[in-house]
Amino acid sequence: MTVVVYDGSFEGLLTAVFEVYEYKLPQPFIAREAATTGSLFGETHTVITNAEKSNRVYQKLKAIISAKTIKQLYDTYLSEIKEIENVLLRFIQYALQSNFTIENDYTKADVLLIQQTSKKVNREKHRMKAFVRFQLTKDQLYYCIIQPDYNVLPLIGKHFKERYADQRWLLYDGLRKYGLYYNGETVEEVQMHFEADLNNEQNLATLHDEKEELYQQLWKQYFSSVNIQARKNMKLHIRQMPKRYWRYLVEKQ
Amino acid sequence: MPMSDRITEKLSILADAAKYDVSCASSGSDRKNNNNGLGNASNGICHAYTEDGRCVSLLKILLTNHCIFDCAYCVSRKSNDIKRAAFTVQEVVDLTINFYRRNYIEGLFLSSGIFKNADYTMERLVSVAKKLRTEHKFNGYIHLKTIPGASDELVKEAGLWADRLSINVEMPTEKSLALLAPDKNRADMLKPMQFLKDAIIQNKEEKKLFASTPMFAPAGQSTQMVIGATPETDLEILWLANGFYKKFNMRRVYYSGYVPISNDNRLPAIGTPVPMIRENRLYQADWLMRFYGFKVQEIVNHENPLLDTDIDPKLSWALRNLQLFPVDINKAGYEVIVRIPGIGIQSAQKICAARKFRRLNSTHLQKLGIAYNRAKYFISSDTEFEKKDWHPNQIKSFILKEGNSKYEANFSPQLKLF
Ligand code: SF4
After folding, report:
1. Fold held by B3-268
2. What residue spans define the domains of chain A?
3. Within an 8 Å CB–CB cutoff, is residue B346 touching chain A?
4. Which pLDDT tens digit goes with each residue over B38-53?
């Protein structure tokens, strides 16, 4: 077995796929840098991310599978599920071998898994679009800290940019320790550590816009007023808003 | 009272009074944010769910719950002794903008009790929408209630600012309307529906000629009727809904299970359970008509005027029509496959795509994520499938034994007797 170590980026992954072919690596097993502790039973091949190589794989994929499926591969990669790289590799190998389009061949385990995983990632993306609750700071920045199950920030930036074109905002992934910041014109990826400040009520009070508290109260009031007690159905409620998301939700505090 | 308490109180009264209107949809529009303003209306996101399991997508409030009418089924009726409140136009605008900026909502659903008269009320609803669009460059979703009896000019102006307009038909028959809402008449509801339908078609035609034609109610119109307050059958309800879809190009018809709020002896007493299962079955039937290619008479007809409560309408239909089954999953067309109980639209598409590669057997089907334990009585592909001649009641009891409904918790004791 050859452990093929890449840097965790999508470009890096495509480079790894390229090198599997380039060097005819025997029994390739792709792994992230952080995830590998060295291989006990074989060689290690380290990939250096290369734009040209990754682009060649990308162009090849474009020629043999639909744009929709390429998007599914990307979404699946963002799931960061253990060993998902190898599912993607096998899918690409299967696509390259076949002289027909394989993307709907759902009775093949890897094909189905990619379809299902990308669906899960997309569901998480939609949940983030729904469950983000911005808070307004004194200097008129709308911010929210999220902890999505999958790495969906790259998938939601466009949505928030289009929608909140006239306000500065920051979405921060507290698990993966990076964020997206929109300055009123462009969205940038930012690295920072600021949770310590935000965990403290007193800091929050001095940080927040004077009306922030009021609107949170009003939203809570609204949320409880629209409930119809005679129709209560907590089972359904929790399925729709799983408890792990409640920490973002002003109305659930 | 401090200003912030007053607004909180108003919000609690006017959200509470608006909650019986079940529509909260924010989809079907395609308004974009191309004026570098705030928001867009093309997503239809549910930002929260209430504890009763309904989607919260819009800020749904009444402008006021003062009303000159006395509709028996409505909490805001004139004769009801409740606290009254009224928002100013500016207050509604501020709430909408500030909720929207925090990503709480997709937009506003504004309705109102009738104060003074229909036009006076409608004018204020329109001015909220106009202010949002023009002064705040707000491109989020706006749903305005059309007040029955409002003038065509105001309805037309409402369409210029709103994404969706709705006029609630309230009761499934004219007779029930006359009984419970003596101030209203059905003609006042149907007239603006027809007017809107024509205006929307005309706008589409103009858009084809001139791209710069302003939008007019791009998310169309919808309506709602109250279910279970009056004795109509599902047949009457669904045939009326079908008529709305066909005649007025209605985007949605909503069914609102009556929540008892009054001791009026024309209505079910307080404490009577909300007919939630029936409401759910009506929505399922509605989906079958809109997305699954079912004709209304296949779902309810004179022999079967009521939807079953213990099984869904698609399964009911299949059990009544066992002569059409089993369906060969490897050969049948999509329209036939999508009618199989346990197979939804997505699964049907997957089946049709996957079978091009190889014959599908039961193992494949289970992996594709269909409700196999339900579907298996209705399909055939190869010898693996059971081909017993079950009686409809047998199939039904097998399926019920497996079932676990998300509405189970709300089965009232009476319903359990069936
Ligand atoms: S007109 Fe509307 S608000 Fe007034 S009582 Fe009738 S349903 Fe209620």
Report:
1. TIM Barrel (3.20.20)
2. 2-123, 132-252
3. no
4. 999 877 888 888 887 7
